[in-house]
Amino acid sequence: MVNDLSAGNSILNQFIAELRDGEIQKDSLRFRYNLERLGAIFAYEISKKLVYENREVVTSLGIANVPVLVEYPVLATILRAGLPFHQGLLSFFDKSDNAFISAFRKHHKDGTFSINIEYASVTDIENKVVILTDTMLASGSSMVLAHRELISHGKPRHTHIAALLASVEGIDYIKKHFSQKDTTIWVGAIDDEMTAQSFIVPGLGDAGDLAFGKKH
Fold this sequence. Notes:
- Helix content is 31%, strand content 34%.
- The chain has helices spanning 11-20, 28-47, 82-92, 141-151, 168-177, 207-212; strands at 2-4, 52-58, 63-69, 74-79, 98-107, 113-121, 129-137, 158-167, 183-191, 193-194, 200-201.
């Protein structure tokens, strides 16, 4: 159910190292670009699990039989940090329909917080393959709530959960709340610790703030 793309040596690990680096993080353009490049890598890896059919392509010299996608997946992301990552997937799955979900932390006076879904723009996902992305999979609560919002609009045939960084606790939470038969998890790296405020350690900080500026 879980694919950890950092398990083997690849350029993906270089980009994740740059995302974590406090000095490189000062360049928000570079941070967003690395998110986008990683989205493209994830798209390539996930594409290996999709369904293909042979198609005859007429060239200037003859006919080539080429395996092409039967159906493009629906790309769904959680705003706002997920946008550059989403764009990287969209650069590969350029014919995909898209869905966007706005989720935010509502902080309480006792120091706790809850996750609220504020808005969703969802295309037709009935019996489709969906790739649901967010940069960080910390507690897993945002991902579960976003998925619940998605399936209120239709039932996907299969859901790929994609996150650049995940905590062990977050992955366990997803396993408990998603069907293992119909769900695949893709992560760029897995960190062991998480703070009481649900920040992954060592993680990389607040991806939304690093990409787009601090929010008030």
